[in-house]
Each structure stands twice: as C-alpha cells, then as structure tokens.
Write a structure and sequence with these properties.
By secondary structure, the protein is α/β, with parallel strands linked by helices. The chain contains 9 helices and 7 strands, in the order E-H-E-H-E-H-E-H-H-E-H-E-H-H-H-E. Helix 1 crosses helix 9. It is globular and about 45 Å long. This is 2,5-dichloro-2,5-cyclohexadiene-1,4-diol dehydrogenase. Its EC number is 1.1.1.-.
C-alpha cells in the first residue's frame, strides 16, 4: 500500500500525463487533494484522462503541450496559474525513446527529437516553473530521469545521453534555487511497465518477459510505484531532500 500525502490546496503540473508514469502521478496528486494540470502532446488522450479525474470529483484540466517548444511550455504554466492561481509541484515526465541503433548509425534527426523532448523539454519546463515558484515563494520539482542516467545501454545513445543530462540539470538547479524555497529532485525509474519500455524491445513480448525476469525483484515496476516516489519527493515528508536522483528499479542497478 502506498503512503498518502496531503496536497489539499496545492496545485500540481504533470507533463507526459496521458498515460504511464505521468498519468499515475497525476492521479495520485489528485487523490491526495491537489488541483492537477495534465499536459501532453496527445491532446485527445490527455483530455480524456483529465475528464475521468474530474468526473471522479477531482480538480483537473488538460493542456496540449509539446515540451520541446518553449512557447507552448510558457503557455502551459500560464494556463496553470490562470486556472488555479499558483504552482506548488511539478513532475516533468514527458519523454521519448531513441530509435535503436549503434551510435555511428543513429541519425541527427533522432538525436534532435530525443534531446528536444527529454532534455530541452525538461529545461523548458523548469525555466517557467522555477520563475513561477520563485514569485510565490516556494515549490517542488521532480524530473523524470532513468536508470539510464547511471550507466550506458547499447543502441539508445541519445536516450542515455539525455537522461544523464536531466540528472546534471536537476542537481544544478537544486543548488541554485534551494535558498529560494524550491526543492528540485529527480527519479530514476528502472524497468516500468509502460509503452516506452516495450518499445525498447520493439514490442517483442518474449524479449520483454526476459527483461522482467532479469530484474532482481523479478518483475517490471508499476507506474503507481514511481508516482509514490514522486509524491514523496514533492511533499513536506522530503523537506530535507535536495538535488537527489532517487533510483526506483527493483534492484536493477545494485552493484
């Protein structure tokens, strides 16, 4: 059973919220009492997700946003504040997987696409979130990195590089803004049962099952298990946690 946190009167923003870890985190924030903005470039899916939360009695709206586009990110944060008055917590989760190819055979287009969403997208979001949180006197940001930020992985160089960058950006911003009442941290998910994880093996069910068996815990993680870590990091329970990348991987990276 996941612990519960009180986010009543708080406002949370989640990117990549149409499915997977983003949707799980948005749902958890809503169930903990927060007003939630669900953002994703998949407009129909994220709108449906927000409508389900609203129908269950939660405060939730959807915003279409491509996080690689700074103007869209600025509009997303502006909409959040216009709708709910403030921004207390953000989970910068939106991400894409690289096409599987050795480094010398990967394309500039794929590099730009992955870096644009996974790294520049987090930077775009943080810039506007930090400004708002600084104006109001505090907040908490959690960035979604990956166990790929801790090691290499053949065939997905752009993805690995982007996630290393997310952790470096997280640590730097954490030191810059902690004295302004803003805590910045990250999560490093391991194998989580999402579409991106299945894309790594090109949808091969057998290969995916082998990946699951290869984790010390013997299974893929659930998106809700990442959401629990995100809510903890965003809550007052983690008030002394600054600039950390918390690994949630079922033992995958234990030496």
């Amino acid at each position: 059973m996941n612990p519960t946190y009180d986010f009543k009167g708080k406002v949370a923003l989640v990117t990549g919220a149409a499915a997977g870890m983003g949707l799980a985190a948005a749902t958890a924030f809503a169930e903990a009492g927060a007003a939630v903005v669900l953002a994703d470039f998949k407009e129909e899916a994220v709108t449906a997700a927000a409508q389900r939360l609203a129908a269950a009695g939660h405060k939730a709206i959807a915003v279409r946003c491509d996080v690689s586009d700074d103007a869209q990110v600025a509009a997303m944060v502006e909409r959040t504040v216009a709708e709910f008055g403030r921004l207390d917590a953000a989970f910068n989760n939106a991400g894409v997987m690289a096409k599987i190819a050795p480094t010398a055979e990967s394309s500039p287009e794929d590099w730009e696409r992955v870096m644009g969403v996974n790294l520049r997208g987090v930077w775009n979001c943080m810039r506007h979130e930090l400004r708002q949180m600084e104006r109001q006197g505090g907040g908490a940001i959690v960035n979604n990195a990956s166990v790929g930020a801790l090691t290499g992985n053949p065939g997905i160089g752009a993805y690995i590089a982007s996630k290393h960058g997310v952790v470096g950006l997280t640590r730097t911003a954490a030191l810059e803004y902690v004295k302004k009442g803003i805590r910045v941290n990250a999560v490093n998910p391991g194998l989580i049962d999402t579409q991106i994880a299945r894309d790594v093996v090109d949808g091969d069910a057998g290969a995916y099952a082998e990946m699951e068996k290869g984790t010390p815990i013997g299974r893929a993680g659930r998106p809700e298990e990442i959401a629990a870590a995100v809510l903890w990091l965003a809550s007052s329970a983690a008030s002394y946690v600054v600039g950390q990348a918390i690994t949630v991987d079922g033992g995958m990276t234990v030496p």
